[in-house]
Structure formats: structure tokens, C-alpha cells
Amino acid sequence: MSAEFELCPGRKIGGSNPCFIIAEIGQNHQGDIEIAKKMIRMAKDCGADCAKFQKSEIEHRFTRQALERRYTSPHAWGETYGDHKRHLEFSHQQYRELQQYANDLGIFFTASGMDEMAVEFLHEINVPFFKVASADTNNIPYLEKTAKKGRPMVISSGMQSLETMRCAYQTVWKHNHKFVFLQCTSAYPLPIEHVNLRMITEFQKEFPDIPIGYSGHETGIHVSVAAVALGAKVLERHVTLDKSWKGSDHAASLEPVELAELVKAIRTVETAMGSPIKHMLPCEASCHSKLGKSVVARKPLQKGVALTLDMLTVKVAEPHGVTPENIFKLVGKKITVDLEEDATITDAMIKD
Question: In this structure, are residues 261 and 294 in contact, taking their beta carbons and an 8 Å threshold?
């Protein structure tokens, strides 16, 4: 069983704790703080544990040339990539406002720090944990500085190799043991054949002392439910109010009805996982009473006869008697009463 730790105040992950469900709002708020607030409330109403955004300090994340290039995507919010990104970026004060709004609603609030200065800001406003986006998982200086801050970390693995994940593990583990790896494939939406859920169990074997989770970009909820059944302790899914909105992430996001259905399905599966100990359960008593089989006499038997296997058979009987798995233990034993054909053989009839 994976290690457990407190990811957010009062909320542990790993071990037998429920899967921690992150509603990734990202930049699906269209740059509108009122839409962002509606999405936080939606995440809360649907049962998610955390509403998450993406925080960038634009000039620290991108080069000047990257910001100045023309951006002609149908999803563009400006003529240049810089204009586009600035439209979608909330100010520090707006982040504080959103954080307070989430706190008032009773849902955890955090963001991916998309560069080192963004991490500094998130640390300043005291987010419960840092989310490391896939693009920064091989950014070793970033990982080291973030790990040293001591907050829990949730680290995605999109676009990375297992060797890179080993390097990320070693880097973070030196400074901080409270982190999670998420299996992730960075495509939006993600073709089902590239989900690679088997990596969850591979990560569990490779990194047995940390929890493993899943960040999904596929459509629908079935794969994400399967990830939890495989042992994902943290689940992240992008969310939206409308998949038809402008923005490349919306098509890979869940609308409110889907998110609510996902949370319900995950909690159902967690309950269904049950116990690894096999025994007859109280809820099976009625079925066993009606259909459970016992050892009976195949033919009339006289008191004192030594039983042989050909004298015995197994049927649904009234009353219940010796259970079928013990039929061979009766061979050679003597009975203390006369028995008719089909009579139940009970322990009380057997001379020890």
C-alpha cells in the first residue's frame, strides 16, 4: 500500500484514503473572473475536492520572441501569443479573490505554477500544494526549488520517459517526501489507445513509497473511473461550463453533468473495492439459506455403518448439514442413527 500524507489541511491521500479529485479549471475561464467563480462553485457542487488554475508570470515563462510571434489559432484571444496569454492571466489580486471565494465555499484551491516566479507567488498565498505541469517535470532546477519549499507536490508525467521520472523522483525526494506522480499523456483530447493506464501499476512498482495518480485528457469518464480502480490516489480532470467555447482545452474537459457523474462513479467504485479477505458475508445469508448445499445420504443407511463415498451425495437440503467441502472427511466415519435416502448428514450424527 502506498504511503499516505496530508495533501491539504485535514485531507490525507494514499493508503486507504478516498481518491482526491482535482477539477482543473486551468484557463477555461476565458479570462473572466466571474466565469472562474462559477467554475469553482460548479466544482464544489459536483463533489470535487479541489479547484485548480494555472498561474504564469508571463515574462518569466516565455521568451520575448515567443510572446511576440503571431498567433492565428481559432482559439486565439489576441494577435500575438503574448496578447493571447495575457488575456487569460489573472492578476495577483484576482488570484487572492478567487482563493477567498473557494475558501468561503469550502473547496480547496491551488494552481500549477508554470514558472519559478509563479511558484513564489503561490507559496506566498499559502496554497495547500503545488501542481507541477508536465512541461516542468524535466525542469530539474524548478523541481528542486519547488521541493525545497516543503509543500506537498502533485507532479504530472506527460511527455516524459520513465528515466526522466526516476530523475524527477530523486530530485524531489532529497528535499521533500510528500509528492505524487500522475500518469498523464499530453494530448487534447487524448486518443484512448494512448492513455496507457498500465503505467499506473508500473509507477506503483517503480515508486512504491509515494502515491500514484492519473491526469486524464480523454473524453468521457470511463477511463478515469478505471484509473481509480487500478489504484490512482489523485485524479485530475479538466472541467468546463461549455465544451463549445473557444480554447483548446474545452474539448478534453468535462461539463458539470459529467463531472458530477464521475465523482459519483469514483465513490461507488471505492466502496465496491471492499475487502481483500474472502469469507461469507452477512448479506449472503439469505441466499445461502435458500441455495446452500449439504452432504446427504445417497441411499438408506443403517446406524453404525462406516461411510463410503458412494453412500454420499450433495444437494440443497433441509435442514443444512455437513458442507460439501468436508465430504471426504466423512469417509470411514460411522453414523449414529438410521438415515433415509436424501436425509441430511449433520455433525451430530457422526461418531468421531
Answer: no
